[in-house]
Design goal:
Length: 814
């Protein structure tokens, strides 16, 4: 692509490049094969011409002098920073040889495929792992505590994931006649108004605010959204689940719930045995006259009511009013009588365990503010909720997520315009599949999935979540039980400098492995522990597509950087080598196969630019639960095993987990560990996002580093004064695991009892070799956060609510 004239190409952002979850339309200005300018596409319905700093800096990114432009082979010890360039053919041959040896000697499951976030990599890393025969695709964050757990938890009770509605499902956006602007939006643990995390744009919320949407902000920091909110609820980190129970308490006790939805579309009318506290099952019941109908007695009216089928509820007949409250009896199979009450009664009783004075005591949020915010949201028709990654970063995230999901459901704000609506892949184009399911990218047999680490212990991974469990995987590298892990493929993952908690433990794990491949655009602390490093291409250097919700759109190659290859091309070549039955000859053939549900080839979609699913389809709202568009059998309802929204999670009961929302105190807080609080009196919250960086990326890009030059910790003026720390001074953050060095930003945006530190810091300008490792050991906050404290279902982790002390760098203990 060379021309003496500047050409303008339309394409779609994704990573590598901006780093985030992409979806913005851009205009790439190219002259003589070089990117000279990039700007937002004003005609694109998602970003409408707006563009973040990271995308605007692509001119510095794509031709950066430190970019890898050849495969590299390590020549010294791991961590020594000694490399030599090799050809692509030599790199592929070496990788094929080493990985085949591991497969032959130990089995394909002994190779783990470690993935990070951001790029369109999930399909292609599955393609490679499954072609190799390994089910062990791993997201390297402890407890997988980013986005995926929210999906699994929400799907458990409502069958699909749901997001706030900003009219993103329609090309005419806010002008669509069926759309309603939310009256109120709760923003829960989120503050990125200038980029796209979780495939939702912060500037959409700003659009809605301009149209009148009021904000309830839940965040211990005075965030940008908090400063513009009607109510700012500054809760103690880790107490979110208590707060949502307080919201539910208000909604239920003030009658602010949607009774019609609760009766018809939730499992509120199901019965719970009072002796066991578990849902009534078919095995409990004595037949009342047919194979599927059973006699259940309403003790209030002393008459039988017809029970339809197991886990479905009362039969909808004139003789059976599906009241949500009441006392019931059933005849058991052995002829006994068991007293029962409804799920709704049990759910209300659970909410009543959290009166507002108790919730205030747990969260630190005044009871009146909780009450007033809950009333505002519940009375808003519609109202919406947007949650950030803070929701995932606590061990008991599932009770929290199911509580928030129940809140939007019982207030009538689910699957309605301007509320929270179900998000499905456009045209049902799913680029990757769960193990054992049909699709272009899948394991060949269910048998191949059996060794997946954690899938038999943690049921969300077994049913909803195709990755192996991260903490168990790390431990298994050392124990080799039940089988050894000998190699790791690392792609889009900075496991040393950003993704891995307790990075010293990860370093020891990487040192133990026989063979490691890393794919990246730049050398990083993580690549220094690989045996081979492959140079990837940015989003401007590849053809791809994006079906993550809507619209379905293509990513179009506009430039080429010599020596670099797109992630998909790297994985495609190796998949062909490892799997003699791999059926695709070209990448576009693979794309065409995945795009079949859309009725378009890749080239046809590329000619369109983007396409929206038709209204009335499964991937376009609204009220799909009423229209039979969610369930595979075409019946109205939700894609749960009861066909209803589950206030009482039947799957969690089967997994021997608490089936209703509740609060659990995290493991390292002043409440759970008062002994530690004596020595480490401050709450350490981490992960504050920067508009200049995406996690560990972009530290070497001049424009972006100028915006955010140093690792900065936010500290309240009173707290700083108590510790003799001034604004701009360097200070240590320390706890029982280690310490990290940060520059003090003295500011009242954080409360006196908490500090807020960003993650992902390393210094590309420093030496690559240990002990420097690009300065990673100096400012890596992950050194203060443990592995192995995931929730009871294998998900979530205590990342945003640990404990610490602080002191100046000069003198004293420094």
């Amino acid at each position: 692509m060379t021309s003496s004239e500047t050409q303008i190409f339309k394409t779609t952002t994704w990573s590598p490049g901006p780093g985030c979850h992409g979806g913005c339309g851009v205009l790439a200005h190219v002259k003589n094969g070089k990117l000279v300018k990039i700007e937002g596409d004003p005609d694109h319905p998602m970003n409408q011409g707006r563009l973040c700093a990271r995308a605007l800096a692509m001119t510095q990114y794509i031709d950066h002098p430190d970019r890898l432009r050849s495969p590299m082979r390590r020549t010294g010890n791991r961590g020594e920073g000694k490399w030599e360039p090799i050809t692509w053919d030599a790199a592929f041959d070496l990788i094929e040889e080493k990985m085949n040896k591991i497969r032959e000697e130990y089995g394909p499951e002994s190779m783990v495929f470690n993935v990070g976030t951001g790029r369109d990599i999930y399909a292609w890393i599955c393609m490679l792992a499954y072609a190799y025969g390994s089910p062990n695709v791993m997201f390297g964050l402890t407890g997988q505590a980013c986005y995926g757990p929210r999906l699994a938890a929400a799907i458990t009770v409502q069958g699909d994931f749901a997001v706030f509605d900003a009219a993103q499902w329609f090309e005419d956006r806010y002008d669509h006649p069926g759309y309603k602007v939310p009256e109120t939006m709760i923003i829960w643990g989120y503050n990125i108004h200038a980029t796209c995390p979780d495939n939702l744009f912060g500037h959409w919320i700003i659009d809605l605010m301009k149209k009148g949407t009021k904000i309830i902000c839940i965040d211990p920091r005075l965030s940008w959204f908090g400063s513009r909110s009607k109510y700012h609820l500054r809760l103690r980190p880790g107490t979110d689940s208590a707060l949502v129970m307080g919201f539910l308490h208000v909604v239920i006790n003030q009658g602010l719930y949607d009774e019609a939805f609760v009766k018809k579309w939730s499992n509120a009318v199901h019965l719970i045995r009072k002796d066991t506290g578990k849902l009534v099952r078919e095995s409990d019941l004595f037949s009342g006259g047919s194979e599927k109908n059973f006699a259940v007695w309403d003790t209030k009216d002393n008459k039988p009511v017809i029970w339809d089928t197991t886990l479905v509820g009362f039969k909808d007949t004139p003789d059976a009013d599906p009241a949500v409250s009441g006392e019931w009896e059933i005849k058991t199979a052995d002829g006994g009588i068991v007293a029962c009450h409804t799920v709704w009664d049990a759910f209300c009783a659970r909410a009543n365990e959290y009166p507002l004075d108790k919730v205030e005591n747990i969260t630190g949020v005044p009871a009146k503010d909780i009450h007033d915010a809950a009333v505002l949201y519940a009375k808003s028709k519609p109202g919406a909720i947007h949650w950030g990654v803070a929701v995932d970063m606590t061990p008991a995230l599932t009770p929290l997520v199911t509580g928030i999901s129940a809140l939007w459901a019982i207030t009538g704000n689910l699957d309605v315009p301007g509320g929270n609506v179900f998000a499905r892949f456009a045209f049902d184009v799913v680029p990757y599949a769960l193990p054992g399911t049909k699709g272009a990218i899948r394991l060949k047999t269910e048998e191949q999935d059996k060794p997946r680490i954690g899938a038999n212990r943690y049921m969300p991974l077994n049913k909803f979540y195709w990755r192996c469990q991260t903490d168990m995987t790390l431990d298994q590298i050392f124990t080799e039980d039940p089988y050894p892990i000998k190699g790791m493929w690392i792609q889009t993952a900075g496991i040393m400098q950003g993704l891995g908690m307790d990075p010293k433990k990860w370093r020891a794990a990487l040192e133990k492995l026989d063979f490691i491949v890393a794919v990246d655009l730049f050398h990083t602390p993580t690549t220094q522990y690989a045996d081979v490093v492959l140079p990837a291409g940015s989003f401007l250097e590849k053809d791809s597509f994006r079906s993550w919700w809507v619209p379905l759109q293509t990513i179009n190659k506009v430039v080429e950087v010599e020596g670099c290859r797109p992630d998909v091309a790297i994985n495609f070549e190796l998949a062909r080598r490892f799997d003699p039955e791999f059926k695709f000859d070209t990448i576009h053939e693979l794309y065409d196969d995945i795009l079949k549900p859309a009725g378009m080839t890749f080239k046809e979609l590329q000619a369109k630019g983007w396409a929206y699913p038709p209204e009335g389809s499964a991937s376009c709202p609204y009220l799909r639960h009423e229209k039979g568009l969610l369930r595979q059998d075409g019946r109205p309802g939700f894609r749960t095993q009861t066909g209803l929204f589950e206030l009482y999670a039947t799957l969690r009961e089967e997994w021997d987990l608490e089936p209703m929302p509740h609060h659990e105190e995290p493991p390292f807080t002043p409440v759970s560990r008062p002994d530690l609080a004596k020595e480490y009196p401050l709450i350490l919250s981490t992960g504050r996002r920067s508009p200049a960086f995406f996690h560990t990326e972009h530290r070497q890009i001049p424009w972006l580093r100028e915006i955010d030059p140093d690792p900065v910790v936010e500290i309240h003026p009173t707290t700083a004064a108590k510790n003799n720390i001034s604004h701009g001074e360097w200070m240590w953050i320390e706890n029982w695991m280690g310490r990290a060095r940060y520059k003090a930003k003295v500011t009242p945006v954080v409360p006196e009892w908490m500090i807020m530190a960003p993650h992902g810091w390393w210094f590309p300008e420093k030496k690559a070799a240990e002990p420097d490792l690009y300065g990673m050991w100096d400012a890596n906050i992950n050194q203060l956060i443990p592995m192995g404290h995931q929730g009871k279902d294998g998900q979530g982790a205590p990342i945003k609510h640990s404990m610490c002390r602080i002191y100046k760098c000069e003198g004293g203990r420094s």
